[in-house]
Amino acid sequence: MADFVGAVDQGTTSTRFMIFDHSGNEVAKHQLEHAQILPRSGWVEHDPVEIWERTNSVMQNALRHGNLAPEDLAAIGITNQRETTVVWDPRNGRPYYNAIVWQDTRTDSIAAALERSGKGDVIRRKAGLPPATYFSGGKIQWILENVDGVREAAEQGHALFGNTDAWVLWNLTGGPDGGVHATDVTNASRTMLMDLETLDWDDELLGFFGIPRQMLPTISPSSHREAYGVTRTSRPLRAAIPITGVLGDQQAATVGQVCYAPGEAKNTYGTGNFLVLNTGTELVRSQHGLLTTVAYQFGDSPVVYALEGSIAVTGSAVQWLRDQMKIINHAAESETLARTVEDNGGMYFVPAFSGLFAPYWRSDARGAIVGLARYNDNGHLARATLESICYQSRDVVEAMEQDSGVHLDVLKVDGGVTANDLCMQIQADVLGVPVSRPVVAETTALGAAYAAGLATGFWRDTDELRTHWQESKRWEPQWSDDQRAEGYAGWKKAVERTLDWAEVE
Fold it and tell me: Molecular function terms in GO for this entry (predicted)?
């Protein structure tokens, strides 16, 4: 029996391939960034061909670094940046347009029109989502309406849609030569097109966006014994390895953090932040600005639902300090710079670059730095940036407690920003609960590997997976209740200053 499971982690800024052993330990990985294409304000795109080429490279290099052969892999899982929309020609594999990224706001007029017409309430009821620029449906509509020839191609069956999981899967399984066009329930639940109860594409929702049904991939469980397909014996692996797990990145992190029981939650700190609370087989409809979504579905077992708080800009705010403001050279320097001051000096930074996501859902918001005095310096800006990550997470935690009645006793965290000790300490201070980071912080790839391995019997069940989880570090709250209340009140005032800035048609 093969001794390892691999996972493609196709993220917003990079693609990596990670290989895990039976204990869930990382054996090898390789990672490559791809270009962030910003054609105009509010537009964010990726080149799908570049993403596929990066996927090829990282798979080959990870195996080489681990001194492994493709046949050493029992299965492969895929996890991906959700909502990022690719439309391509199945006859030749060429994208009709760049991938429109989840952060992109060009579809704000589409979302606003749905809300005005009353269709937004139908989307909330069926899909569990508000009409927003975040999700795939409006992006597909924009491509159909704005890229010459795509609507005609779609109606003739010559245009396929997928989030990046479906794009990578189709290419891995043969592309134009018999590639499998499929996705899983978690990715499908991020489109505004799937009914959460039937777990199928909904004709009424498709009609709202004018999307031909034949564009859409087949919806399958996240962990699939029959396999999504096998890698073709051409590149990148030159071997037929079953692909048996697919999960959107935040659901994959939920699986990797072993949040398998109702009431268990995790918060992933990446480009954005995503807090996911397992609600079990109960479909809990949010009344406080959260998303009702699918957490995962393993084989023939009932689907497990979740509440999610999605925050657009957290880790990417640190990238903004590095790339646009140029006050740091590396992301890790944000901690060093922030430690030069004792507090934020009265400064708050609300990074509403793409509007505000949960729990506000305000596409008219734009970023703001408020409370400035001449006293403030780069250290205060770095500190305010880290605090913005933590305050946005508190906004979501408050909404989640109101919706679910569940009070967090501890917050499980993962993702790149968790390497920033100061940020995690601030998070514990802002929330007033301990923050816990696992030994394997990159739980997104691990969750995809778990889903793939469960399908093949590489791992027996979720109880076995629980035994692999180990805490690496814990941060205890240090602020007083008065400090916590005062800081959060200032944050709420700062958020108010960002609203009603951009004109939405």
Answer: ATP binding; glycerol kinase activity
Phi, psi of 242 (to 5 degrees): -70, 135
Contacts of 40 (CB under 8 A, 6+ apart): none
Determine whether the annotation assigns residue 14 to a binding site: yes
Type and span of the H or E element at 79? strand 73-80
How many CA atoms within 13 Å lie on the side-chain side of 169?
33
pTM of the model: 0.87
pLDDT at 235: 66
Q: What is the widest separation between alpha-carbon atoms in the chain?
A: 65
134 assigned binding-site residue = yes
Residue 394, both tokens? 């508190």
Give residue 302's pLDDT.
Answer: 95
Distance, CA of 455 to CA of 450 (rounded, Å): 9
| Type of residue at 68 | L
pLDDT of residue 282: 86
Q: What is the pLDDT of residue 322?
A: 94
Say whether 83 counts as a known binding-site residue: yes
Other CB atoms within a 10 A radius of the CB of residue 410 amount to: 14
Please check if 244 is assigned to a binding site. Answer: no
Write out residues in the chain with pLDDT < 50, as ranges: none
| 36 marked as part of a ligand binding site | no
Annotated binding residue 348: no
For 260, the 3-state DSSP assignment is coil
Q: Reduced to 3 states, what is the DSSP secondary structure of residue 163?
A: strand
Q: Give me the pLDDT at residue 233, please.
A: 63
Q: Is 195 labelled a binding residue? A: no
Query: Is residue 12 marked as binding?
Result: yes
The CA distance from 2 to 454, in Å, is: 14
Q: Single out the residue of 338, 356, 347 nearest to residue 272, CA to CA.
A: 356
Is 45 annotated as contributing to ligand binding? Answer: no
State yes or no: 319 annotated in a binding site.
Answer: yes
Consult the annotation and say whether 16 binds a ligand.
Answer: yes
229, two tokens: 């397909």
End-to-end CA distance of the chain: give it in Å, rounded: 58
Burial state string for 122-153 with b = 16 or more CB within 10 A and e = fewer than 16: bbbebbbbbbbbbbbbbbbbbbbeebeebbeb
d(CA 485, CA 91): 58
Which two tokens mark 341?
A: 């001051």
pLDDT of residue 491: 98
Neighbouring C-alpha atoms within 13 Å toward the C-beta of 437: 24
Q: Which of 370, 392, 447 is nearest to 415 (CA)?
A: 447
3-state class (DSSP) for residue 242: strand
